[in-house]
Specification:
The two termini are 41 Å apart. By secondary structure, the chain is mainly beta. 9% of the residues lie in helices and 47% in strands. It has two domains: 652 residues, TonB-dependent receptor, beta-barrel domain (Maltoporin, Chain A, Beta Barrel), CATH 2.40.170.20; 80 residues, no CATH class. The strands form eight sheets. It has a 22-stranded antiparallel barrel. A six-stranded mixed beta sheet has the order 1-4-7-8-5-6. A five-stranded antiparallel beta sheet has the order 17-16-15-22-21, with no helix packed on it. The protein contains twelve helices and 48 strands. β19 and β20 form a beta hairpin.
Length: 891
């Protein structure tokens, strides 16, 4: 393999390191017994060990630093237990309601069903208004001590949203000294540069300690046109054919008889803008690739401060403070601005002599705008904790979080004003009344007066706020023959608010509605840990865990959840564990209070290349036999439903932990998980609604009223979807983790293997409707649900250096919309991504690290249902080989 200059430079610095490993707790980490009681993710009870019924994976700060990854979401999204879609820098266009945000999606059940905590407490939702989940961009990796991922439902312990699991990000606190960390990286093609600078200060004083961190991160854009030549579609002959957007330069229109025409695209011709002819998608399509990012630029400044002060021997005051400013932007294609406007035959600039209906026009005369986001997120936690004389721990805390943001386009077109310029009963050809008539009939025909009249800066604002009071108590109640009966109990009161104020022009044109909603919840919980047996035949230790939570919402009926857990340690080598629990998710503000918002979402019309029953039903709906879908996106009206209620789930995990004495340093865990959800909040995506309608127009009649077709062209012009409590979902699978630590030629070696086998991922949109099975499929807008995912890591460590390699495996999958008409895109083979990283300790205080990701420059595969750049940008690596170098100095 011939390496690029970037790879060679990194290789010179590379002495590689341990990679990110999702280590299974408890058995996969050797640790000495600590007499101090600690609280582990998944339980509120303080204990002296980490043996719990629920499976927890741990990612440490050393492993994070070894990778060079700057963003938390990249760490989590590459783990085998993640699936589906979540926002990040490579799919910022596809995060509805929070562009530029980043999340994690455990088990592929959706970002709203994964609860994200910071030091065991909730974080305010992040984005640019009325958002549904935490923006992981607000948390710099430099302040993280470790990340604990609870792969189990935990509503009884943590409340709503912990359906698929919990991500608990634990920050550094007991930090003594000063540390400067500088990292730079770039892609193999010379783009995608990134810079990270972090300064940490901390120290202990007589009665406490403090930690302060300031971080700056910046990453540059990568254009899609620098990674692929053109957008393509596959043919039955196995060829990939380039195509352009149906929103064309110069403009398209319909004649009264339904003939589609294209106006002149060459302003240098003699006929100039008066030329027009039949529309031909292969000839007139617009190349949008130069106007879209493969990676969106991101700039972030974060400041964090954590401190505690011992008031007396039994009481301590503590606080946590964080502030993050994030700026992001994505270049977008020249705006369309209007469609469906009828222009009279005698309008001066109309060259057809007939009444026409303007359909689409790519207004490239105005240039390409940028879609921008800017957010400010702050979080403050203030509390007291202590210990009574009887050994019971108590805590009282207040948690406040606020996120505000703005987003929009550097410019857009006012469709109402554009329509006025095509009606000479309103506009004037000499602009005598300030409303100029516009020559939209051909490329570069618009006068500056028209451009100035219709063009405006589009900007909306919004935010999220959360306030929480909490009080907790934990300790030992009494002794049983098998050990101590322990408990934890607490009360919480939480208020959440979200709002979104669209741009005034957007609001006036009915393209987006205001959003404003709030709710409060009062909760009480209790948890017990009961030792049942100890040192008897076939039970060295048998413990039970029980938790119960009552949640009273002011907008919903009260909910109760429980957890029943069992750990059965048969001997020193084998432990069995299981948890049976219930979980629920309350509707987020946009689902309950959100108004209508129009979004151009990727949609596949099943009437194109239809066969069998679908073809027959499409013909019955007057869709012609040779129908070709015009473009890949459809205007989709999404919004809220005040009648929507919570969704409920039953969860089960059962597993085995094995640490054989004959193989010192080896441990293995196997866990089965099953999540069964009823009344799931769903809004079926446009592709599925169309497909269900034409598969059975009578049985699935409710879907046939959700979309509108043009009366002449039969193109889908609009889709409506609203959330309802209708779906049932079932997700199950098996997690396997193997961890082996051993000596190799005098070096410390470690190898880890994580595998997730997805067994079922079924959803039924409505009672009596067909069940949709996603296992083994890649979807057009919901990510990948391959049967197999795994992460393999191997590293060796000496006194002053470390080196290692990691391999990420994404299993083969079929395209959910694939067929014989596109043999190249109907399935995707398994993909392996290989990374190497390492460090060398130059001096006692100075360490250099380096790494190469995707060292073999594996290209993203083509699939029929690609959502961007001819691939699934939510699953596959579009950037290619890239490297980083990091310097860490302690002083």
């Amino acid at each position: 393999m011939k390496l690029s200059p970037v790879a060679k430079i990194v290789c010179l610095a590379l002495l590689s390191s341990s990679t990110v490993v999702a280590q299974e707790s408890p058995q996969s980490q050797s640790m000495e017994e600590d007499i101090e009681k600690i609280q582990v993710t998944g339980s509120r009870i303080k204990r002296t060990d980490m043996e719990a019924a629920s499976p927890v994976s741990v990612i440490t700060s050393d492993q994070i630093l070894a990778t060079g990854i700057s963003n938390v979401e990249n760490l989590l999204q590459e783990m085998s237990f993640s699936a589906g879609v979540a926002g990040n820098q490579t799919n910022a266009y596809w995060t509805s309601g929070g562009y530029g945000t980043a999340q994690v999606n455990l088990r592929g059940m959706g970002i709203k069903r994964t609860l994200v905590l910071l030091n065991g407490r909730r974080i305010v939702a992040g984005g640019t208004g009325a958002n549904s989940s935490v923006d992981l961009n607000m948390i710099p990796t430099s302040i993280i001590k470790q990340i604990e991922v609870l792969k189990d439902g935990a509503s009884a312990v943590y409340g709503a949203d912990a359906v698929a699991g919990v991500v608990n990000i634990i920050t550094k606190k007991d930090f003594d000294g000063a540390e400067l960390d500088i990292k730079t990286g770039m892609a193999d093609d010379g783009d995608g540069e990134s810079q990270d600078v972090s300064l940490s200060l901390g120290g202990n004083f007589d009665k406490g300690n403090f930690f302060v961190n300031a971080t700056y991160s910046n990453s540059e854009a990568v254009r899609q046109s620098d990674r692929i030549d053109c957008p393509v579609y596959g043919t039955e002959e196995g060829e990939l054919v380039c195509f352009g957007s149906g929103t064309t330069e110069g403009g398209r229109a319909l004649l009264p008889d339904g003939t589609a025409i294209q106006f002149n695209q060459d302003p240098d011709t003699a006929t100039h803008g008066n030329d027009f002819g039949p529309y031909d998608s292969s000839k007139h399509g617009f190349d949008w690739l130069p106007y879209l990012n493969a990676v969106s630029p991101l700039e972030r400044v974060s400041i964090a401060n954590f401190a505690n002060y011992q008031i007396n021997d039994s009481m301590k005051v503590f606080y946590e403070a964080m502030y993050t400013k994030r700026k992001a932007q994505q270049i977008v294609t020249p705006r369309n601005g209007f469609g469906g406007i009828t222009v009279d035959a005698d309008f001066m600039y109309n060259p057809t002599g007939e009444q026409v209906e303007f359909q689409r026009r790519r207004n490239s005369e105005l240039g390409a705008p940028y879609f921008f986001q800017e957010t400010d997120t702050m979080r403050i936690v203030l509390g007291l904790d202590g210990e009574f004389d009887n050994g019971w721990y108590w805590e009282v805390a207040y948690n406040y979080g606020r996120n505000t943001g703005s987003d929009g386009w550097t410019f857009d077109i006012d469709p109402a004003k554009a329509q006025q310029t095509l009606d000479d009963s309103i506009c004037t050809y000499d602009n005598s009344n300030g409303i100029p008539c516009g020559d939209w009939f051909g490329a570069n025909e618009l006068s500056q007066e028209v451009i100035d009249y219709v063009k405006y800066r589009r900007e909306g604002t919004g935010g999220n706020e959360m306030r929480t009071w909490s009080a907790s108590l934990a300790g030992d109640l009494f002794e049983l023959p098998a050990g101590t009966f322990a408990f934890a109990a607490g009360l919480e009161k939480r208020w959440e608010e979200g709002w979104r104020n669209p741009d005034s022009t957007v609001l006036a044109n009915g393209l987006e509605d205001e959003i404003s909603g709030e709710f409060s919840v009062t909760e009480a919980y209790v948890e017990f840990s009961a030792p049942l047996l100890e040192d008897v035949s076939f039970a060295q230790k048998l413990d039970a865990e029980v938790a119960f939570r009552y949640s009273d919402y002011d907008t919903l009926d009260a909910e109760s959840t429980y957890k029943l857990g069992l750990t059965w340690k048969i001997n020193e080598e084998v432990m069995l564990r299981t948890v049976k629990s219930t979980a629920f998710r309350a509707p987020v503000i946009t689902e309950q209070f959100g108004g209508t918002n129009g979004e151009n979402l990727r949609t596949i019309d099943p009437c194109e290349n239809a066969t069998g029953a679908i073809a027959k039903n499409c013909l019955a709906d007057n869709v012609p036999e040779n129908f070709v879908q015009d473009g890949t996106t459809v205007l989709t009206n999404v919004g809220g439903n005040p009648e929507v209620g919570p969704e409920e789930a039953d969860t089960l995990t059962a597993g085995l932990v094995w640490s054989p004495q004959f193989l010192d340093g080896f441990s293995m865990t196997v866990d089965y998980f099953d999540i069964d959800m009823k009344g799931a909040i769903t809004s079926v995506n446009g592709s599925d609604m169309l497909k269900l309608c034409y598969e059975d127009p009578i049985g699935n009649s409710e879907f046939c009223g959700t979309f509108t077709r043009h009366p002449l062209t039969r193109q889908v012009t609009e889709i409506n979807q609203r959330p309802v409590n209708a779906a049932t979902e079932n997700v199950s699978g098996v997690d396997l983790n193997m961890d082996y630590r051993f000596e190799l030629q005098g070096l410390h070696a470690k190898t880890t293997l994580d595998i997730t086998r997805l067994l079922t991922h079924e959803s039924t949109p409505f009672a009596g409707q067909p069940t949709i099975d996603k296992v083994g499929y890649i979807t057009e807008d919901q990510g990948s649900y391959t049967k197999w995912r795994s992460n393999f890591n191997f590293s060796v460590m000496a006194d002053n250096w470390s080196g290692g390699v990691s391999v990420r495996y994404i299993g083969a999958a079929d395209d959910v919309n694939g067929g014989d008409f596109d043999p190249l895109g109907k399935s995707v083979d398994a993909v392996l991504y290989t990374d190497v990283q390492g460090y060398y300790q130059l001096t006692e205080d100075l360490k250099i690290s380096a790494g190469i990701d995707n060292i073999f420059d594996k290209k993203a595969p083509y699939l029929t249902s690609w959502n961007d750049a001819n691939t699934d940008v939510m699953t596959y690596d579009l950037i290619g080989r890239r490297g980083f170098v990091r310097l860490n100095y302690k002083f």
